[in-house]
Please model this.
Amino acid sequence: MAKTGKRTDRRHFMKTAGFGGAAILTNGMTSHSTGKAHSQAHPFERTKELAEQEHKQLFNMCGYAAPPLSTVRVGFIGLGSRGPANLDAMAYVEGVRVTALCDRRPARVEHSQTILARHGLPPAKSFAGNENIWKELCKDPDIDLISIAVPRGPLHAQMAIYAMENGKHAAVEVPAVSTLEEAWQLVQTSERTKKHCMMLENCCYDYFELLTLNMIRAGLFGDLIHADAGYLHHQNNFIRPESGDMWRVRESQHRNGNLYPCSTI
Model:
């Protein structure tokens, strides 16, 4: 991205990114209105003003880089499906040491230990046995980064916030949040603790996505005003897991909209 000389803070980023849901967010936050006349204001300006009344920027994380680590010690929460895949991929990364594995089901932790053994890596600490064991992992001082992949959206935000509160960086699977307020909590916790929080949806770095982005930048599509992308999972494709928790199906039944947005330009 070319430097413009402008201050890259959260307000400027949101404005230049084109905050498409401005009108919807305004309706959802009317209880915080100051009583000023907004009838003639642009929807984005109303949303920005109302949001900033409740969510003051604590620190500018744009461009911030935490102090480098020669070895990044990683803990994993959630080892059902996506978690082991992330663990296997992380085992190839130089400078990474997996120090902790966590799931409420001990069998899943034991299986993930075999992944480490297959890579010739030493076993990690095991955290298993109950619904709240993940909190013990977050408190472990032998961890720098926590990878979170559990099957319920609201827990993602709760775990990421708790991880940052305990001095850990967080990498969280989708959906990272279930509500707008959870999104603000993630942002402000990151700003306050100066810990990075990354959503593990990296399809935007695949060949097709980067090719499309470069085609846009090269002007092959003309003057692009707006683009929105995502994909829908057909719920019949999901086989009932061992836990019996069909959370994807349940979420799709009571939410109306794109549950899995990939990008907005």
